[in-house]
Amino acid sequence: xxxxxxxxxxxxxxxxxxxxxxxxxxxxxxxxxxxxxxxxxxxxxxxxxxxxxxxxxxxxxxxxxx
Length: 66
What we know:
mainly beta, 5-stranded antiparallel beta sheet, 1 helix, 5 strands
């Protein structure tokens, strides 16, 4: 799973798109769970980390380090 190194503020694409039709998400919280926010409709979803790594398709943009 070395190709799926994700971090805060990364823009990612998931295997399934959001019901609003978009498929660009921003990682806004990390821990045991990962919170991602849809960049089209601004809704956020909390997913367990293990489930997130399974559903992650690819990282589109790396987020800036704070």
